[in-house]
Design a protein that fits this description.
CATH architecture of the largest domain: Sandwich
Number of helices: 9
CATH topology of the largest domain: Tumour Suppressor Smad4
Structural class: alpha+beta
Strand content: 25-35%
Number of strands: 16
Order of helices and strands: EHEHEHEHHEEEHHHEEEEHEEEEE
Distance between the termini: 27 Å
Helix content: 25-40%
Radius of gyration: 19 Å
CATH class of the largest domain: Mainly Beta
Largest sheet: 6 strands, antiparallel
Strand order of the largest sheet: 6-5-16-13-8-9
Number of domains: 2
């Protein structure tokens, strides 16, 4: 059988890749023929995945962060092979969502021996189309992503996002935009459309979200002060997001957002254009390798 591994050698300062490379030099699974593809720039993982569609492996494993996997999800949203993940990024949100080991050798073993599950795939359409497994965000959290320094992420990991969040909380103007779901219409200054429970930095913003229920979970800020926003983020960091009158929650299969020019969106921690945009979900469509014990 053929195993293809796409590696982002810069993810996590290369720690996971170095350990994985040592393991592959002692490869003992004779029934698996391994080929390794190293990315060289942003977007390259998606290009490699598209090329693999012409001569598909039996299994594709991605060694990188959530952003690396997102490139593949966007460029190859309906692959003819299952995809496993070796977490090597800053936040590794999907790995934690799936209960994957953070050790690269153990994570590879899950990809080889685990179970294939088809999970929901989100789609964001604006000037371009993007896919996501975890979440889309509009407004404040996209600003946090935009202002996150790669140098600080390399040095301090997830703490770089907290630094950017504090800076943005103090300086962002929180412009209001409009969100329409299947049954509601509301104004907000920040909106998360979640396909999964987890969020970057250990935050739990949508505790009821499920990556395999065919729905999107929305949390939106309809008012409040900067201090109240900070309290909400702190409660989410503790795993118990507070209930406030200015925090709106909804469940839907479709979202449309419109508003002033220059309000950014992000998907799975990667910038994804500006308003207006539409967001939907394709249930049970993306084949992921998960631990056999995963729900």
């Amino acid at each position: 059988m053929k195993l293809a591994i796409i590696v982002n050698p810069r993810a996590g300062r290369g720690r996971a890749w170095r350990k994985l490379r040592r393991h592959l030099k002692k490869w003992s699974r004779k029934n698996w023929e391994v080929e390794v593809h190293l990315t060289s720039c942003s977007g390259h993982a998606g290009v490699i995945a598209q090329d693999l569609l012409e001569n598909p492996p039996d299994l594709l494993v991605v060694c990188g962060g959530d952003g690396t996997l997102n490139e593949i999800v966007t460029q190859a949203p309906d692959p003819p092979f299952p995809i496993g993940l070796i977490p090597a990024g800053t936040a590794n949100v999907l790995a934690r969502e799936l209960g994957l080991p953070l050790d690269p050798v153990q994570a590879l073993d899950v990809s080889l021996t685990g179970t294939v599950r088809r999970v929901d795939l989100g789609i964001l359409t604006g000037r371009s189309a993007y896919r996501f497994l975890l979440m889309a965000g509009i407004g404040f959290d996209a600003r946090v992503i935009w202002k996150s320094s790669q140098r600080l992420k390399n040095m301090f990991g997830v703490l770089a996002y907290y630094q950017s969040a504090i800076q943005s909380l103090l300086t962002y103007s929180f412009p209001v935009f409009q969100v329409e779901t299947e049954g509601e219409h509301f104004s907000t200054a920040a909106c998360i459309i979640a396909n999964a429970r987890g969020y970057g930095g250990g935050l739990v913003l949508t505790p009821e979200a499920d990556i395999s229920d065919g729905m999107l979970d929305i949390v939106a800020l309809e008012g409040g002060t900067r201090l109240e926003y900070a309290k909400f983020v702190f409660s989410a960091w503790r795993g118990r997001p507070g209930t406030y009158p200015w925090v709106k929650r909804a469940r839907t299969k479709a979202v449309r957002a419109e508003g002033p020019r220059g309000i950014w969106a992000q998907v799975d921690g990667e910038l994804a254009g500006t308003l207006p945009l539409e967001i939907g979900v394709v249930p049970a469509s993306f084949p992921l390798m998960v631990p056999s014990s995963w729900k």
